[in-house]
Amino acid sequence: MLTLPRSLRAELKDPLGPVYTDPEALFETAGTPIVAVGDVVTEHLLSVTTPSVALVDGQTKRTPLDTPVDLTPFDRKHAVENPAATLSREMLETLSQAIDDGETTAIVVDGEEDLAALPAIIAAPLGASVVYGQPDAGMVLVTVEEQTRSTVCELLTRMDGDHEAVLGLLEGAERE
């Protein structure tokens, strides 16, 4: 549905929230539900809690992991396709449903899950937490607030593709 243009890549390197290296400290600050984006982030959070939703692709920094994340703590598991530098309809719909269904859900992505933090910020309820990895720095904790959603909506409208359909799908699932 959306593809990341080269012109926007550098802008996405800045974290959208504070960076943590200690999962316990992050958990103490986080709201609920927690959406984890990335294998290493999910692994760290599983040491203190089971995230409501986790998106993993079996890689870190585009390198396959030697040992996949143990997803047995999750109630449900879904497999989706999402090519690199894109947000596919299948991933967006699955993410939105997983946030809404109340059971812990692992979404196993064939492709890349790196951009999933953006739609998660829009689809998650106010006060929720979206956690994603900041390469060589730690875990970024984003508290879902109106200002953060507005920033992310603006970023999504600068991607290539059907912005209106994506925002309609995500905002339709938006929780207060």
Characterization of this structure:
This is GTP-dependent dephospho-CoA kinase. It comes from Halocatena pleomorpha. Keywords: Coenzyme A biosynthesis, GTP-binding, Kinase, Nucleotide-binding, Transferase. It is an enzyme of class 2 (transferase). Pfam families: DUF359. The protein has 176 residues and is α/β, with parallel strands linked by helices. It has one domain. The chain is built from seven helices and twelve strands. The protein has helices spanning 6-9, 23-29, 39-46, 89-101, 117-123, 146-157, 163-173, and strands at residues 2-3, 19-20, 34-37, 53-56, 59-60, 63-64, 76-82, 86-87, 105-111, 129-134, 138-143, 160-161. The strands form three sheets. A seven-stranded mixed β-sheet has the order 2-11-10-3-4-9-7, sandwiched between helices. Strands 8-1-12 form a three-stranded antiparallel β-sheet. Strands 5-6 form a two-stranded antiparallel ribbon. Helix 5 crosses helix 7 (163-173). It is globular and about 35 Å long.
* Secondary structure tally: strands: 12
Order of helices and strands: EHEHEHEEEEEHEHEEHEH
Strand order of the largest sheet: 2-11-10-3-4-9-7
Strand content: 25-35%
Rg measurement, Å? 14 Å
Query: What is the domain total for the residues?
Result: 1
**What is the average per-residue confidence, as pLDDT, rounded to a whole number?**
93
Enumerate the spans where pLDDT stays under 50 for 5 or more consecutive residues.
Answer: none
Q: Cα distance, first to last residue?
A: 25 Å
Silhouette: globular
Number of helices: 7
Secondary structure category: alpha/beta
* Largest sheet composition: 7 strands, mixed
Helical residue percent band: 25-40%
